[in-house]
Amino acid sequence: MWRVVLVLFTGMFPTAVQAAVSISEVAWMGSAESANYEWIELHNDGAAIDVTGWHVNDGVNLDITLSGVIAADSYVVLERSSDASAPGSAFMIYTGALVNTGATLSLARVDGSLVDQVSGGEDWENIGGDNVTKETAQYTASGWVTAAATPGRGITTTEIQVAQAKSESASVRKTDGGPLAKPVEVTETKLVLPGITLELAISAPKTVYVNQDITFLSSASGIGDHLIDSLLYEWNFGDGSVSSGSETTHYFTHPGTYAVVLYASFKRQEQIARHTITVLPVALSLTTNSVGDLQINNDSPYELDLSGYRVVGAKEVLLPPRTILLPNQTITLSKKRIGSTDMVLAVYDAQGESVALKLPKQLQTENEIELAYADSAVTFYPVIRDEMPEKSTEFPLAQSVEVSEVTAAPSLSPAGAVPRAGGESWPYYAFGALLVVGTFGVLVAPRPAKPAESAFFTDSK
Known about the structure:
CATH superfamily of the largest domain: Lamin Tail domain
Number of strands: 31
Radius of gyration: 48 Å
CATH topology of the largest domain: Immunoglobulin-like
Strand content: 25-35%
CATH architecture of the largest domain: Sandwich
CATH class of the largest domain: Mainly Beta
Strand order of the largest sheet: 8-7-2-1-11-12
Structural class: mainly beta
């Protein structure tokens, strides 16, 4: 009697709910040494995690309470009865047994929330394993396979290829259980995993304004709900900023066109989506009309969304949501509403940045004068004197000199002559003449004669 054994599609994946720990290998058949040498392997493909208080159970007669920390990107083995059940050191020793007729294994946190679940199906046909060869059921990127046991290390690519090649032409010997116990040939046909691809999209506006809050939404499809719930999202906004989560908000501080990139992944599922967004500058100006009302002018060739903008003067006005100012149009706020307009008035965007400013008339006038002075061409010329005073070998005592403010010299006359400053030079001439006369008098004055000195010394007696 021929019987086709189909592997149920829903058993090809463990249903994981936002966790890095999963059930990766099940030795429900024991080992060649003993049928009691059963074990379960857990894989942590994320950061180190404390699983104290977590539970692994089959809903029948197995309930394992975990204790300890599973290191990052590592495999651990839960062994039945003793550490001899599998090669290497056991993460935990448990009591109880996995039935050969199949069960559903669940991994749950302390609060009972589900981390991973494997539906073994009848006789474990959903995930595999062989009670004759003692090959175990092992999870791979393409689903569950039956392969030589790999407790505590994970299955390699070569081992996966060998297991898949064997499963394509697998045949086993079974008995029909009748009186003669005749062996019959049973061909096992496995369902080929269809191409399941994660599809990812970004929902966001295409055109926004500087400092405008934008909501970015992700949309995932093409895979099961449990896998979608487990996806990890990474956003890159193209301006040096990043974020995470299936939904996020962001604002751009400078105008330009940006490529927003979203990366989503979980286990073998990963996908990238892109969204191009244009950020426009905000060009506003403030004026007043003849009666003193404040006018907010859109100087841009496109409409502006002023939702959440604040107009601050004697009073503050908050512009409500969905305030749209059309191109080259104006919003007028009455003097009664904004208060006196003869003061500094400003408009702030949703991030508190000033986007428009109006000064009172007095400050505007002073500002215009300063700007006009700054723009004027002022030329400074040095003062050129007729001659320099003579140097003296004697110096008067130091005295405090008061320095007057330096002023700009007059411009050259049309003839090109430099005005002389002779009226200011006479003190130098007088001082020089006095020095000359004094020096000459010292040189020509007669000196008194000195007494003659004897060339020899005599002794007085």
